[in-house]
Amino acid sequence: MAILVTGGTGFIGSHTVVQLLNDNREVVIVDNLCNSKLCVLDRIKAITGKEVKFYKADLLDFDAIDKIFKENKIDSVIHFAGLKAVGESVQKPMLY
Questions:
Q1: Given this model, what pLDDT does residue 89 score?
Q2: Is residue 9 classed exposed, middle or buried when 0-12, 13-18 and 19+ CB atoms within 10 A define those classes?
Q3: pTM score, whole prediction
Q4: What confidence tens digit (pLDDT) does each residue in 22-50 have?
Q5: How many angstroms separate the CA atoms of 6 and 59, rounded?
Q6: Strand order across the 74-79 sheet
């Protein structure tokens, strides 16, 4: 059974993924990459020596999320996806 980590290429999410992989857990990452970069997956592999399954998708894309759950045996979710910029949240409150 896998753990789905939303926002898994962000700072906190990627550190969590590294720890989970080092604990021999199966991990699936979903991230829309709006606040992170795809190269984080290479860094995760360099640190752990393990590949991680990754989906570039937004959590508001229900069809994509449904597909992820159908393709993987996910038994838990750790949710780190979210916007975090205070200045932007004041300028664009509807995004937050």
A1: 81
A2: buried
A3: 0.90
A4: 999 999 999 999 989 999 999 999 999 99
A5: 8
A6: 53-56, 26-31, 2-6, 74-79
59-73: average pLDDT: 97
Contacts of 78 (CB under 8 A, 6+ apart): 3, 4, 5, 6, 13, 16
- Given this model, what pLDDT does residue 86 score? 83
Residues 6 or more apart whose Cβ sits within 8 Å of residue 63: none
Which DSSP helix (H) or strand (E) runs through 89? Answer: helix 86-91
Report the 10 Å Cβ neighbour count for 60: 8
The token pair that represents 16 in the structure block = 């969590």
Contact 3, 75 (CB under 8 A): yes
d(CA 18, CA 8): 10
Confidence at residue 94, expressed as pLDDT on a 0 to 100 scale: 82
Residue type, 73: K
